[in-house]
Design goal:
The protein is built from eight helices and seven strands; from the N terminus they run βββαβαβααααβαβα. By secondary structure, it is α/β, with parallel strands linked by helices. The chain has one domain: Rossmann fold (3-Layer(aba) Sandwich). The strands form two sheets. It has a five-stranded parallel β-sheet with strand order 1-4-5-6-7, with helices on both faces. The longest helix has 16 residues.
Length: 252
């Protein structure tokens, strides 16, 4: 039998110790039209990656869609998690009412983003796609910290080089979202969990992070000043510090 390993996944600057490309992104197979799938299948994919690498338990970190997947991992595979960190996401549907944060207090995304997302699947040449993505990042960055267009333009150039295409990966916007109404089950989570509050997030603005933290027993809520829905250089160190403090605490 192969020896099982326990691995700490650390975020240092912009490097994550272990990560994988979701279906229909970067170098993964792009076959959604022929083999459509549900969002929840992506959480099972993450477990399959751990299995393939022989990793028994890991610290998991998820942002945005990744935060949804981390919640599913907390519910379905808690024995594989040493800890969980998530941000830029909202609590799964079906969570019981909160006496302090009501559903009507949870605002939706910035209307400018909704307008841009309506163009997500349109065909563009490489130059136009690059400019579209930079504008997307500009909005995602929020209005608090300066936005460095060149930083994100170079990021997208590396993504296109890695994936071999400038085609916009829109499959996740089409994936089946059923099976995500499981917010009530978060009350049984016992994995040490950190929720990072991104005060400038235009996708899931305050108080979404606080609502999520209140739904998970014992979850800690830590704010990173100026953090939006993008990982520009100014937020990397404080975000990494918060994650490493969480994953390194209590002897984990």
């Amino acid at each position: 039998m192969s020896e099982k390993k326990t691995v700490t996944v650390k975020l240092v600057r912009s490097v994550i110790g272990t990560r994988h490309d979701h279906r229909d992104t970067v170098r993964s197979t792009r076959a959604f039209p022929e083999r459509p799938y549900a969002i929840r299948a992506l959480a099972d994919d993450a477990v399959a990656v751990l299995d393939a690498l022989g990793i028994e338990r890991a610290h998991v970190v998820g942002m945005s869609l990744g935060g949804t997947l981390v919640q599913l991992l907390l519910l379905d595979h808690p024995e594989r998690l040493l800890s969980a960190t998530l941000w830029g996401t909202s609590v799964l549907g079906g969570a019981p009412p909160d006496p302090e944060i009501h559903d009507e207090d949870l605002p939706g995304p910035d209307p400018r983003l909704l307008a841009l997302w309506a163009e997500l699947g349109e065909e563009r040449d490489a130059a136009a796609e690059s400019e579209w993505r930079v504008e997307h990042w500009r909005l995602l960055n929020g209005a608090v910290l300066p936005f460095d267009a060149d930083e994100f333009r170079h990021l997208e150039e590396r993504v296109a080089e890695h994936s071999g295409t400038w085609a916009n990966p829109a499959a996740h916007a089409l994936a089946d979202q059923s099976g995500l109404e499981r917010g009530a089950e978060l009350a049984r989570v016992r994995v040490p969990t950190l929720v990072v509050d991104a005060p400038a997030d235009p996708v899931v603005p305050a108080p979404h992070a606080a609502r999520l933290a209140r739904a998970i027993p014992g979850a800690r809520l830590v704010a990173v000043d100026g953090l939006g829905h993008a990982l520009g250089r100014p937020v990397l160190k404080p975000l990494a510090d918060a994650i490493l403090e969480h994953t390194g605490s209590e002897g984990r």
